[in-house]
Amino acid sequence: MLRTALVAICLVFVPNISPSVPASVDAYVERYRAATGLPGVAVAITNKGEVIHATGYGKTATGEPVTADTPMAVASVSKSFTALAVMQLAEQGKIALDQPVRRYLPEFTMADPRAAKITVRQLLHQTSGMADSAFREKSLPQPRTLQGAVARLRTARLAAEPGTAFSYHNTNYQVAARLVEVVSGRPFAAYLDAHVFEPLGMRHSTTIDTDRDLPGTARGHLYVLGQAVAVPEPAGFGNGSGGVVSTAGDMARWLIAQNTGLPDLLSARSVDEMRAASKQNEDYGLGWMIDKTERGTPVLEHGGDLFTSTAHQLLMPGSGYGIAVMANTGMAFSDAHALMTGLVAIVEGGTPQVPSRQPLLLTDLLFALLTLVTIGLAVRGTARARQWAARRTGWRLWRLAPCLVPITLCATIAPIHRILARGRDASWVQLAYLYPTFMVWLVTAAAAGLMVVAARLWGAARLRRTSRPDHT
Fold this sequence. Notes:
The protein is an alpha+beta fold. The chain folds into two domains: 318 residues, 3-Layer(aba) Sandwich (Beta-lactamase), CATH 3.40.710.10; 109 residues. The radius of gyration is 26 Å and the shape is globular. The N and C termini lie far apart (101 Å). The protein is built from 16 helices and eleven strands. Strand 8 and strand 9 form a beta hairpin.
């Protein structure tokens, strides 16, 4: 009843919304899709207690039309839901944010003794000291449950003293979700359903454990040579940190609840606490990022990236606007984030810019050409292997070293990426999703190099055998 009354009050005070906003959004999204080839996207726009626009565009990976009720992955936007669940338990006195996690979750142990000091708040602020540089969460074997996600930390160490540094690390929120399970006595999905989704009327939303649990409509695409190709999400665990699956209609309800103070879910004091930054990072609260638009409007937001889909949510507390975007292309292309920039421009009365995929297409064409050239050189090098050996009577193995460079790079690409990405972890397969045409060329070059080396060694061996004095 209280929630209904508050929403009704908000509706009275909603400013006049231009009827052209939905039309402008439709036109912009369709221009964006035509320019980029984006297969499908869902959008929700709200203002205080009103849904301005909630709809879908294009197709899912399974060929169905995207609608306002199509379940799609929201990836790391899920962190806002996990933080809310933890705050509810804190408000009920079942946990204290500044107490050690281990007090409520004894199974949370690490090889680093400093982990005993990690507090619940530090998990949510991403200041626990855990980081990709110390614990390779993506490239290690993946757990299947939240309990397994916590159990695999037993051999892990910290990258920093708890509470001293910010490091965005998904495991923080997986531990937080397991904390919710243990303290509430319910599976995390059941807890969110009973205490968040059902009260807000989010009938089509849930949270899942792994990539295998994604519904077909939530699967996504990669762009290859300018074309969107439907592919399965690479193996990975995401509950608590990135497991929520939702719809445009449900995200509209979530945005309205956020902009009307989360009635019936959380006190105003706790809401303010969630939106307060840590001392270590003035841009990150509890599951929310604190930022400004290009025009300087303060916003609360959080993005989400999977390898085959992206999402973004944004609140404008001053005006009461809320926007959510879910796109079925992967993090390498940032479609949800780019669309969010355009939608914010529309809401703020500006003109959105439609990006071009031309540089990406040119890069793909370059690596496609390199792949063909590499295959041609490999065929030529193999066919002429014996002549190569004949010209090198004093040949040594080091002369073959250039042919082995691609296989060496192929074997070391993951650690090289970690260095270039400042410690962020990714497995070899995940890198293939991030850089598909480059990785196709690299694998082709590695196979070609091995083929040429084998042919030249065989040619040299045959030449030496036939050149022996006793050879008949």
